[in-house]
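From the shared-data thread, chain only:
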Amino acid sequence: MFQDTRPAALCPDGSPDAWAEFRVADSVELLRLLKQLRDGSVPVTLSAPQGTPLSCQLWSIDAPQRQISFSADVDSVHMQRLAYCDEAVAVAYLDSVKLQFDLADLVLVHGASSCALCARLPGVLYRFQRRASFRVRTFERRAPQATLRHPSMPDMRLGLRIVDVSVGGCAMVLPDDVPALQPGSRLAGVRIDLDGDTGFDATLRLQHVSAMHGGGSGVLLGCEFVDLDGQAQRALQRYIDHTQQRRRLLSLR
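Structure, as tokens:
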């Protein structure tokens, strides 16, 4: 990776105080800078721990829903690996000013002919003109989630992070310390919460269990939605359409 787009390192003691002058926490200023990236189609480099850096563009900013989305190549293995991570770092340049911010709650949202990488709107951004910078973790972490009971242990209630969703199903991360689930299992009474406005109950069929891309912890559960009712189908389709609509509108700028 080029040094210019390499995520900056934390201070040795992890304290952000020495970098207060570079921190942008004011929501108005933070949104202003993000909109400059979006409106200028500025290349943004996304990096995850032990992952391959990817160049993309910021497509949309949804401040009320506290969500942003980036261009995504559905066929890119590296993009899929990035989505499976718990976090990533974004680096971009506005003229000579380097911007850096953490991304959390990554999920790939599939449409009819394209997809987007969605993340939580960052709560803090760093703006500086030198390389001796660092990053901090965001404090707000509310990823798209599936809540269910373990099929072989009904007393065990699970909250699994959703990393990929389409009209046909979703992919979830099962931590290493949770008893395994077997392909073919039927998971009933699953609560799907994609954002503050999109939630529904569903039955899932576990299609496959695979290792996490990039050697991450846990395993990936590929699930199919089974007989979603009309209300759930509409909610899911609205969520996907909303993501794609933001992309189409921005492509006309």
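The chain has two domains: 3-141, 145-242.
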